[in-house]
């Protein structure tokens, strides 16, 4: 009972931080375990793991290409918008 009341007396931000940090550590720990299992399976020549690794590699490559295209599109939009604003401001001061 004493620890429970002490926990409730902590500020809400402190309780949130404890919960958040624990969740983040747990996420990375589980991801690390899964990655180590995939590496071990790949090294051992497990066909299902190799297929899974290759599938994730293709998915990562596709996501990377899409993100690069989106970055290029955003740069093009920024340059187009900048040139439009420049021409608009130049026409006001003529």
Explain the layout of strands and helices.
Blueprint lengths: L1 H8 L2 H33 L2 H46 L2
What labels would you give this structure?
mainly alpha, 93% helix, 94 residues
Oligomer: single chain
Shape: flat
The total strand number stands at 0
How much β-strand is present in the residues?
A: under 5%
Reported for the largest beta sheet, the result is: none
Order of helices and strands: HHH
Give the N-to-C terminal Cα separation: 77 Å
Uncertain parts: none
Summarize the structure in words.
The structure is a single chain. The chain has helices at residues 2-9, 12-44, 47-92. The chain is flat and about 70 Å long. The chain has a domain at 1-44. The chain is an all-alpha fold and 94 residues long. Helix content is 93%, strand content 0%.
Overview in brief:
Helix content is 93%, strand content 0%.
